[in-house]
Structure formats: C-alpha cells, structure tokens
Design brief:
Chain lengths: 41, 475
C-alpha cells in the first residue's frame, strides 16, 4: 500500500503511539522518515 | 508500625497571573513574530474578578463538586457569590503573587518597583497567612527595575502590559540558571509554598510534626552540572517553616503526584516518618499554552492561573480516608502504550488485586483538564475520553452492559474542571473533593489515576501511569 512512500508518523498519547503506527506503515511497505508520540494536553 | 496510612488533609490554590502568561512556553515562542497577535493576546487577558467567577475555578477550589457545575459554556457565565477564599484554599491576585514570589526568593533574584512592593506587602500583611510569610523580603526586593532590565533581566508585567518587576539571571553562562528558568522555578516554589501554608493554617497542622516533604512539581531545579538536581520539596518545606522536615522530589511528568502519594504512604506505614507532606507548585511554562485556539474562538486567554497542592499523609487516625497500598495500579513496561491498555493497568488490575469490582468504586478521578480550555485548540475532551474508556473496560468485564456506559460515566466520572497544569489536573486536584466524599459524603471508594508522557523527554518511547485507591475509614 505504501511502497516507495516516505512517512512522517505523529502518534497521540491517548490514541495510538507513534511506534505502533510506524510498525504498521512499515509492514505496508513505507519507509518511516520520522516518528514521535506527542501529548496535546 | 501503623497498619495503614491516611490522607489527613489537603489544600489547593491558584494564582492569577495574566501578566506572566506572555512568558509561557507557547506565547514566548509565538508572540515576538507578530505585533498584531501580541496585541490581541494582551487584549484577551482576563481580569481577576472574571478568574474568580469562572465556574471551573470555583469547583477546583471546593465551592462545589465538579458534578454540580452548570452546563457549558462556563466562560462568561460567572459563579454567583464566588469568592477568592474557598473551602480548599484561594485564588491569589497577581500583584500579591509577585509579593509572594519575593517573599520566598532567597537569592535576591526578583526586583520589584517600589509602588508594587509597597502595595503587595500591605495586602499580604492582612492575608490570613501573613504571620507565616517573610514579608521583610518584599521590602528588600524593592529596587530599580529599569536598571535591572538594562543588565538583561527578564521584564515582569502586571496585566496587560505594565512592567513592574525584573527577574535576574543567577549566572551569566549557566543555561539552568537563566532568568526564564528561575521564573519557572520561583513561581513553582511560591505556589507550592502557598498551598502548604494553607494546609497548615486551614487544618491546624503543627509544622513541627512533619518529617518529610515530597515535591511532585513539574519544574526542574538545578545547575549546568545537574539540571533537575532538585530539591523543590525541601525548598518549599523550608519556606513554609517545616523546621524538622527534610525532602526530595518525585518526577514522572504529569503522573508524579500519584507515585508521590504512594511513596509518602509507604514511608508512613514503614514507620520511617510519622507524617509526610506531598506538595506541588504550578507550571508557569503552561500559561497560555493553547492561547491561539482561544483567540481563534473569541475566548479570553484561559490559561492564566498557576496552581498548587499540598497533602498531609499520616498514620491511621481511624477517621481519615485510608490509602490502600494493596490496590496500587502501575503501568508496566510490558503493557504497551495503547490508551485502553494503560487504563486497564490503572483501573482493573489494582481492583482485582483486592477482589473488588469496578462498580465498587464511587468516583474515578482521572485527567480532569477543563475541556473549555483544550477543545478550542483541537485537543478534545480529555476527561470524557478517559471515562469512556474506563466505562468500556467495565463493560468488557461484564460489570455493566453496553447501554450502561453513559450512566457509569455520569455517576462515577465528572466533567474536567482543572486548569491545564498537567500534574495538578491529573487526579490530585480531586483529592480534597475525595476527602469530603469519603468522610462527610456518601462515597466509600475513590480511585485516583494519572498518566505521564515519558516519551516527551526522548529517553524512552514508554508512557507511565499510576493509580491508588482511597477508602472510607471504618474506624
């Protein structure tokens, strides 16, 4: 799905953490350029 | 050794500091780029009466239970009969707060304009806590603000835009001792001291009986060789006259107050100290954190208060709510960072440990950030999000049906009402309410739970969290 794509991953504290999203998009063929989890409170 | 520790008393305070809001982390990065935005920011600062009459502030200070708050919007509605002094503490006006910062400033960092020093000293002299304050330091802080600013000191304003003081760096090269860092730390020390003095005064506590003071404040006190070295706990203990106390700091992002309570109770039950205080000053960097959203929606700058909390933990007195050290929840390293998994660790597991059900808890106190502050900037309703997940866990366990989620949230949750002072909003702000509910009220169990965003410090991808159960004392 994401073959050849570079992805910037921003996870959210109350939702899904950045590394979890990164694992998913990598499994779908993406290259992760940046990953972080943020807290918006 | 005592069989149990109890929460004997607690206090909460707010300091209204619209003049310091421009030095919050977000405004200080954003405002210099736009004179127009700066003007809108300054014109959107609230006056003291509006801050006192803001319903969530009154709930924070104990004038009502959060579930008794009227429906939103709260801004502009006012609170009939709202007073500065309330059951849990007070909301201090900013000129007095500048005087209070001077009163706890042991290194002559703060320079006050003469007229401001005089007014602040006069007003604090008639404050109920005046006998416990070093008012002589306010007069000693009087000086030439213009001259201090010429040496690079940080200008301090009374809202909206009048320079009345200057905060000096403590070292020319040490980044841990810049004026900005010291402003954060001094504001934290002042609010923590104010909360602790209210605890002593309002609950007739003998300061000589307190053996240890644990700070769970957010700020990092230290120098370039040990950034965050501490020790705010002892600094506040000293300022509040706790002559026999030592202290230390517990750090855990916004979750810190809960491990601080658990450690304090453990020290009491272990017989190390008979009485321990947990204290936290507020977070000046979080002033104005979401101001852009507020301005976009025509709201005032709502993050204009700095908070403080103090809690007294003692051996079981047969009356005060017990801290159930056998029902402490902790987010394990192996648990993962998903929100539901964190809350499972913090709610289900500690209750299972004592054979209790989720329905046995009358009140869940979680992250109680005021949604009127968080929603305009797109952060959503944090408290509601937590309560929906907690209720879903109860449904998953079969304790309630899916149709019972709304009732569970309404009866055992509450609207977020705390200012976005992370650690204070994270359950500990509910502690004075919990004490009332577990003594004069009809609650038997209250679960306090808090989460910390460790990943923000870039040393771990982990989150953390801790919870602790408070229980009515059966005598």
């Amino acid at each position: 799905m994401f073959n050849g794509k570079q992805i910037i991953v921003i996870g959210e504290r109350d939702g899904v953490a950045g590394p979890a999203i990164a694992t998913c998009v990598q499994a779908a063929g993406a290259s992760v350029a940046y990953v972080a989890t943020e807290c918006f409170v | 050794m005592p069989e149990a520790a109890v929460v004997r008393a607690s206090s909460l305070v707010l300091a209204h500091t619209p003049g310091l809001a421009r030095h919050g982390s977000k405004p200080i990065r954003t405002l210099p780029a736009s004179a127009e935005l700066t003007s809108r920011f300054l014109n959107s600062l609230r006056g003291f009466d509006d801050a006192v009459g803001y319903p969530p502030h009154q709930a924070f200070l104990g004038a009502c239970h959060p579930r008794e708050l009227p429906g939103r919007p709260w801004i502009g509605t006012g609170w009939a009969g709202g007073q500065r002094f309330a059951p849990f503490g007070e909301l201090m006006p900013e000129e007095e707060f500048l005087g209070l910062m001077a009163a706890v400033d042991e290194f002559d960092l703060l320079v006050l304009a003469p007229e401001v020093a005089e007014r602040a000293a006069k007003r604090l002299a008639s404050h109920p806590l005046s006998a416990r304050l070093n008012l002589g330091r306010i007069a000693a802080a009087t000086g030439d603000v213009t001259a201090a600013l010429a040496t690079g000191a940080l200008p301090i304003h009374l809202a909206p835009d009048t320079v009345v003081a200057a905060l000096q760096a403590a070292h020319a090269e040490d980044e841990s001792l810049t004026a900005h860092v010291l402003l954060e730390n001094l504001a934290c020390k002042a609010t923590g001291t104010l909360a602790l003095l209210h605890l002593l005064h309002d609950h007739n506590v003998d300061p000589a009986g307190i053996g240890y003071t644990i700070s769970c404040s957010e700020e990092a006190v230290g120098d370039r060789y040990q950034r965050g070295g501490g020790n705010m706990g002892k600094a506040i203990a000293s300022a509040a006259g706790l002559a026999d106390s030592s202290g230390a700091d517990v750090k855990n992002f916004c979750a810190a107050p809960i491990p601080a309570l658990v450690i304090a109770a453990s020290l009491v039950v272990a017989g190390v100290f008979e009485q321990v205080v947990v204290v936290a000053g507020g977070s000046q960097p979080k002033l104005g954190m979401k101001f852009e959203g507020h301005l976009r929606h025509g709201l005032p700058v709502l993050e204009d208060v700095i908070g403080g909390v103090a809690v007294l933990i003692t051996a079981d007195d047969g009356v005060s709510p017990r801290i159930r050290l056998d029902a402490v929840g902790r987010h394990r390293v192996s648990s993962g960072g998903a929100g539901a998994q964190i809350l499972h660790d913090l709610t289900v597991r500690p209750l299972e440990a004592i054979g209790a059900r989720m329905l046995d808890v009358d009140d869940y106190a979680t992250e109680l950030h005021n949604p009127e502050i968080t929603e305009p900037q797109g952060s959503g309703d944090v408290a509601a999000r937590n309560y929906r997940t907690i209720a879903a866990l109860a449904a998953r366990r079969g304790e309630i049906g899916r149709e019972g989620v709304k009732e569970f949230v309404a009866e055992r949750g509450m609207p977020g009402y705390a200012p976005t002072q992370g650690h204070l909003a994270s359950a500990v702000c509910y502690l004075p309410h919990a004490l009332h509910r577990l003594t004069a009220g009809d609650a038997d169990r209250v679960l306090l739970l808090a989460k910390g965003s460790l990943f923000l410090g870039r040393m771990s991808q982990q989150s953390d969290g801790m919870s602790v159960l408070l229980e009515r004392n059966g005598g």
